C-alpha cells in the first residue's frame, strides 16, 4: 500500500510541475480549458495535464499526440468508482449500440463521430480492439468517457450529482427519463428545494439517489433497457406475448429456441436472463425507496410497473403477430438479411415498410414510455405518451394490414 501511495504521489507531483508549461501556452490557445482546470479539485490536489494526457505532446505542432484519458487513466486515483462502473450498464453502452443492426447503416458522424447514438453511448467501455480501430481511423475519441457525467476540465462531483447531468442522454425518443422525472413529484420537489421554496432538508430524490445510491457507479435496473426477461412468468398469456417479442427481437427462433443473438444480449446486458439477476436489482430499488416510503408501499408501486409491462406486452404481441402474418402470407417480402419471417424491432427506421416502421415506434417509443412513465412516477407519460399511443399504433397497424391485404387481392 505504501508503494502504491508513493507512486501516485510521485505521478501527480511531476505532472503538476509540468502543468505550469501547459498553462503558459494554453492560456493563449484554449483559455477556458485552463480556467476550468484552475477551478477543479484536480488542480487543488496537484493533478496536472501530464497525469491525464501523457507527455508526448509538448509543442504547438504535436498536439495530436496528446492522449485522451480512459477509465484506466482515472483508475489510478479513482479505482473504486471505475471498478463499480465496469459492473454496470454504462460500461456496456458502446457494445449495446453496436449490437443494434441499424447502427451499421448510420452515417459515421453519428456513431464514431458521436453526433448521434455515439454521443451518449461513448460512456461505454470500448475495449482495446475498438480503441485501436478508432485511432487507426484518425479518431481522437478513445475509451469510455467519465467526462460524460464529470464534465471536463473541472470534473466536478457536485455537477455529476445533479439530475441535470443525466439529461443529455436520458431524454427524448426512446428513454425520456429526464422529462418524466422533472415532471414527477420527485423532480418537482427537487427543483423547489433547489430554488429555496422548500427547506434544504426536504426529501426530494434525484436520479443519482435512486440509481447510484451512496455514489455507487454500478448503474443497473431490474428490467433492463428493453424490459424483457427470463424466466417466463406463470401467466400463460404473458409468456406467449413475451415469446413473441423476443422472436421479433431476434433472440428466439420460430420454435421458441434461443438464437445466436442470445450471446449478444448477454454481452450487452440489455435484459435480465435469470430470476436472481432480476431480483437482486429489484431488492436494491426497494431498499432505496424505503428511505422515504414504507417497504410495502415501495413493493406495491414497483409491482404496478411490472403490471404495465404485462399489459403493454399484450398490445405489442398482437401488433407483431399482425405483421408476422403479412410475412407468412407473402404480403410483405422478407428482407434477405432477416433470418426468420418476423418483423425485426431493432431495425428501427431502416425497416422496409411503413407498417414495420409503425411497429418499431410502438415498441421503442410508446412501449418504453408506458412502463418507464409508471416507474418514474409520471402519470401523463404512462398514459398519454405511452399506453394511449400504443392503442393508436395497434389501430393503425390493423388498418394498414387490412389495406395491404385488399391491394394484394386486387393484383
TrEMBL record:
Q: Name the Pfam families for this protein.
A: Multi-haem_cyto
Return the SUPFAM superfamilies for the record.
Multiheme cytochromes (SSF48695)
Q: Does the keyword Signal apply?
A: yes
Signal peptide: which range, if any?
Answer: 1-19
Protein name from the UniProt record: Multiheme c-type cytochrome
> Domain of life, per the record?
Bacteria
Against InterPro entries, the record matches this protein to: Multihaem_cyt_sf, Multiheme_Cytochr_ET
Q: Which UniProt keywords apply?
A: Signal
Amino acid at each position: 500500500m505504501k508503494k502504491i501511495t508513493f507512486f501516485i504521489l510521485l505521478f501527480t507531483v511531476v505532472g503538476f510541475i509540468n502543468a505550469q508549461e501547459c498553462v503558459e501556452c494554453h492560456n493563449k490557445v484554449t483559455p477556458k480549458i485552463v480556467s476550468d482546470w484552475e477551478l477543479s479539485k484536480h488542480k487543488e490536489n496537484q493533478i496536472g495535464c501530464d497525469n491525464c494526457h501523457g507527455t508526448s505532446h509538448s509543442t504547438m505542432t504535436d498536439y495530436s499526440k496528446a492522449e485522451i484519458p480512459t477509465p484506466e487513466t482515472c483508475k489510478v486515483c479513482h479505482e473504486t468508482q471505475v471498478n463499480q462502473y465496469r459492473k454496470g450498464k454504462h460500461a456496456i453502452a458502446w457494445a449495446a449500440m453496436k449490437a443494434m443492426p441499424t447502427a451499421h447503416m448510420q452515417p459515421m458522424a453519428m456513431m464514431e463521430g458521436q453526433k448521434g447514438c455515439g454521443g451518449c453511448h461513448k460512456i461505454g467501455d470500448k475495449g482495446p480492439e475498438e480503441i485501436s480501430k478508432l485511432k487507426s481511423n484518425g479518431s481522437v475519441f478513445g475509451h469510455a468517457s467519465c467526462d460524460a457525467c464529470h464534465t471536463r476540465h473541472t470534473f466536478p462531483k457536485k455537477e455529476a450529482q445533479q439530475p441535470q447531468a443525466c439529461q443529455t442522454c436520458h431524454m427524448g425518443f426512446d428513454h425520456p427519463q429526464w422529462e418524466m422525472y422533472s415532471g414527477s413529484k420527485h423532480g418537482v420537489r427537487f427543483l423547489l428545494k433547489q430554488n429555496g421554496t422548500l427547506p434544504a432538508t426536504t426529501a426530494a430524490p434525484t436520479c443519482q439517489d435512486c440509481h447510484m445510491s451512496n455514489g455507487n457507479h454500478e448503474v443497473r435496473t431490474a428490467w433492463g433497457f428493453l424490459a424483457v426477461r427470463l424466466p417466463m412468468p406463470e401467466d400463460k398469456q404473458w409468456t406467449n406475448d413475451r415469446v413473441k417479442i423476443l422472436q421479433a427481437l431476434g433472440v428466439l427462433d420460430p420454435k421458441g429456441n434461443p438464437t445466436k443473438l442470445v450471446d449478444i444480449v448477454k454481452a450487452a446486458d440489455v435484459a435480465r436472463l435469470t430470476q436472481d439477476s432480476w431480483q437482486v436489482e429489484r431488492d436494491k430499488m426497494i431498499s432505496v425507496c424505503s428511505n422515504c416510503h414504507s417497504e410495502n408501499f415501495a413493493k406495491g408501486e414497483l409491482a404496478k410497473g411490472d403490471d404495465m409491462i404485462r399489459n403493454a406486452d399484450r398490445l405489442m404481441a398482437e401488433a407483431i403477430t399482425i405483421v408476422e402474418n403479412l410475412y407468412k402470407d407473402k404480403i410483405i417480402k422478407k428482407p434477405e438479411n432477416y433470418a426468420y419471417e418476423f418483423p425485426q424491432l431493432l431495425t428501427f427506421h431502416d425497416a422496409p415498410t411503413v407498417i414495420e416502421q409503425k411497429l418499431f415506434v410502438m415498441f421503442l417509443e410508446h412501449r418504453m414510455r408506458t412502463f418507464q412513465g409508471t416507474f418514474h412516477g409520471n402519470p401523463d407519460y404512462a398514459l398519454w405518451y405511452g399506453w394511449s399511443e400504443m392503442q393508436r399504433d395497434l389501430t393503425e397497424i390493423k388498418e394498414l394490414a387490412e389495406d395491404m391485404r385488399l391491394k394484394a387481392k386486387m393484383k
